[in-house]
Every structure is written in structure tokens, then in C-alpha cells.
Amino acid sequence: MTEVLARASGVTRRYGDVVAVDDLSVEIPAGQLLGLLGPNGAGKSTLINMFVGLRKPTSGTVELFGHDPRDVRARRRMGMTPQETGMPETLQAGEVIEFVAAHYPNPISRKELLAQFHLEDVERRQTGGLSGGEKRRLAIALAFVGRPDLVFLDEPTTGLDVEVRRALWDGVKAYNAAGGTAVITSHYLEEIEELAQRVIIIDNGRAVADDSVDALRRISGLRKVTIRALEVPALPGVVGVEQTGDVVSLITADSDQLVRDLVASGAPFADLEVSSGSLEDAFLAYTTKAPTAAPTA
Amino acid sequence: MNTIAAYTKFEILGAIRIPMVFVALLFLPTVGMLLFVVPALGDDPVAATLSTGSMCLFTVLIICSAQYGLGIADARMKPWGGYVRTLPGGPLPKMVSMIVMSSVFVVAGSIPLIGIAVLGTEATASLLDIVLGLGALVLAVVPFSLLMLAIGYAVNPYLVSVITSIAPIILAYLGGLFTDPNSTGGFTANVSPFIPTRGSAELVWAAIGDYTPNPLSMVMLGVWTVVLAFLAYRAYRSDEGKRFR
Predict the structure, then answer these.
(1) Largest Cα–Cα distance in chain B?
(2) How many residue pairs bridge chain A and chain B with CB atoms within 8 Å of each other?
(3) For the domain A4-216, what is the CATH code?
(4) How far is A250 from chain B (nearest CA, A)?
(5) What does pTM read for this prediction?
(6) Which of A103, A138, A150 is the best mutation test for B, with the most CBs of B within 10 A?
(7) Which residues, in sequence order, are bridge partners of residue A152?
(8) Which of A104, A270, B53, B112 is the most buried (most CB within 10 A)?
(9) What is the Cα–Cα distance from A195 to A165, expressed in whole angstroms?
């Protein structure tokens, strides 16, 4: 039986008349990379804010390492990212790291942390003067200062270029391989698909799906039939077409029937491939609102 | 201890990188010294000494407004303030570091005013008097920091900057800091003893010169401190950062 690091039981949070989180129950077992997915305003940030003790649930209970999230004992084993817009502008990056490190009994050495997040060059620069990507990296680095057992990464790579994003993903994977647990929210389905082992889709404050990435792809029921063809005949049952050069992907609910129709049509094609739909298909199937498109960079 | 030192360093670094802050803090008390104390009371050694104490206390009011009122409102507005509350520190290091900072500010802020008094007036005080006076000024931080904490946590952050910029002037005026401490005019006799500023001022005056505090002012200072502590505590407990409705 895996240890449960954090647990929300029947949690509801209201802001006035608005219900941000509605009777939600989640367990975060040790060693898991959990992705939280949902449209803007679905309640992801409110859920995280309750786990880290910034907001109290209106009803229900939230536990962090068996304590109230406001308890210092719980917080010592937890890390989170500040929003980069709120860094104390007059302080140098190194000074901010030192300040955060002073809260923990056994923090990572500053040198090691700076190297890990490629921040050596900005150690002595004031945070107000850092670029967006540098601030973001510093913010993520701060979550790992205290050698946490559980980190909450809220939109960790928003606004980062692809190279830095990849480096960060590798960092999160290495942390997880060493036994670390992480909760990640993201607008980028690609990011969740890459990192998370389990995904919870939240919509209107409720968990509408909670499963492994693979299972969610299958559950969406959609299949992708990819062929190499110069011309594709109009076929019944196709809900979407993606075309790159002569590679055509047909999205359908019934791939078997589509393949039969394709063969029967007599159209020339090669390299037939059938794969399960993407997480994005699952996401669309579960929520009413469209997700932010993955950045093309 | 490590954490308290880190918070204090953090506060000091945040403050000294913007030197204009000190000019802003000391502007009004310096004007008060030059336009009121020096020309009107400069020739009277007793009044000049006590009024220099008044201007130092005025500085304390402004420091408390900026540091606690504005500082807390700012922290509530910025995501960084919320982030710091997720760190395993608790409220103690933050409080201790702010008190240390206040004391540093109070002493640093009094030096130029004392300098003006030495150069421009007949004011006299022994070194012991000055040290006692600085002690009374640091003590005065207690009620006014509590007042400003209550305002900083309870009031809409956008309004706090307005309140904190006028509150010191009103409190100083009502407490009789802009009049001769020994004058017994109707206003200072009837209203001032009920204002917390008066009690703090009388303690400062008693420390630096020949002045006997009014018992009524002392009682009211105690009452105010208890009331303000309660209000500040309540405001702190109900705060969850920025409010959304």
C-alpha cells in the first residue's frame, strides 16, 4: 500500500455565490506525477491553494502529510512555485533563494540549485530585471529548495521556450525518479501527456475524469487512422482530418469501419496506421470548453 | 534564529535598495522642525527639546504607516506575500524582523532631527536622556504598528495608501505634536488625552526633559493598545490574501 501524502475529502470552496470547487475528493499517493487539467476557472488553482494552506475549504477537509496544511510540520515537506510576477523586485535571485532556504532544515546548496535550473548567470541580478523565462526558472527552483517530498507546480512552463521547457521536464522526471511526488497543472496538454502518470480533469469544480493518461486516451473512444495518400476520398464517420504533406490522419469513432470503407473506395494509399486518440480528444470529450492550443514552437 | 535573521536581512535589503524611501519618510518631520520648532520655539530650551521629541514621534507615525499599513497591504496584493505564507516559517520571524526594522528606522530617522535641534535651537539633553527618548520612541511603535496592521489587513489595499498617507498628520495634530507641549490651551487639554498619540508623546517628553505625564493620557494609551491589539489580531486571522467576490 502506497503512502498517501495529501488528501482532500469532500472539499467544497465558495467565493460568495460562486462555487469554485464542488465536493471534490482526491488522494495524492507518494511517488506519483499527477496532472490537473481543466479549462480556465475550472477550480484547479483553488484546489492547489487549499492543499498548500492558502485558502480554507468552505466544507470538507484537506490534509497534507497527515496535518492541517497550515501546520508548519506539513509545510516543511512541501514545495510550491510562487507566481513569477510577484517576486520581490529589488532582491537578487541568489538572495531570494537564500531567504527561502532559511525556512528548511536541510536545503539544497545554492550552487547546486542554480546549476540545476541554469541560473548561475543571474545569481547576482535583481529579480525585477530578469527575463520572463529566467523568472519562471527561478520560481520553479524555489519549489525545490527545501528538498520537498511533494511539490505543487502551477503552470510551470507557461511562457518558456521549447528548449527550457524540455530541460525542466527532465528535471521533474529526475525528481520523480528519485522518489519525489508532484502535482502539475498546465494549459498545455502536451506537457501533461509527457509528464503525468495520472490525470484528473476538472470542470466546473468537479473531477469529471481521474485515470492514467493511456486510459483517458482510450476512454475518449476516438481513433486516429493515418495513411500516406495524395487524395483522400470523402468517407462516412470521419470527425476530423489532419494533413501534413501527403500524410493524412483521419479521426473517427469507429476505425474498423473506416478502414473497410477506405479499402472499398479503391483509393490508393500506403503506410496504414491506427492509433488511439490523444489526450486532447479526451479532454474535449469531458469538458465543454476548448483547451488552449499547444504552442507551436 | 536562522529564519529570523533571514527575514530581517530580507526586509533591510528590500528597503535600502530604494533610498528615496528615506527621503519620503523624513520629509514632513524635517519640514516640521524647520518651519515650526526652529522659528517658533527655538529660543526656549525646554520647548525646543520637547518639540524635537514630538517631531521624532511624528516620524514614528509615518514609519509605522509605511512599514505596517502599506507593507501589509502590498504583501496582500502581491502573489509573493501568499507564497511566503506557504513556507514553513509561521508568523513569528516576520513579526520579529519587522520590529527590528522599526527600531532601526526609528533610531536612524531621529538622528537628522536631533541634528537640526542641536544646530538650530537651544534644545539640550544629556546622552542618557536621548537614549531614554529613543527607547520611548521604539515603545511608541507598539500601538501605532498595531493600528496600521489592523488597517493593512482589514481595509481594501487600494484604500490603505490613502489612509496611511493622511493618518500620521491627523494623529500628530490631534495629539498636540504641533503645539508647545507645555501649553494648556483648550484643545490639548480636552481632546488630546483621549488620542493614543498623546500618551506616547508624553512618555517621550518625560524621557528627554522635565515633563510629568498626565495620568488620563497614560490610561488611554493602555486602553488603545489593548483595543488595537484585538483589532489587529482579528484582522490578521480573517485575512486570506486578496479577496474575490
Answers:
(1) 58
(2) 73
(3) 3.40.50.300
(4) 45
(5) 0.76
(6) A103
(7) A80, A183
(8) B53
(9) 12
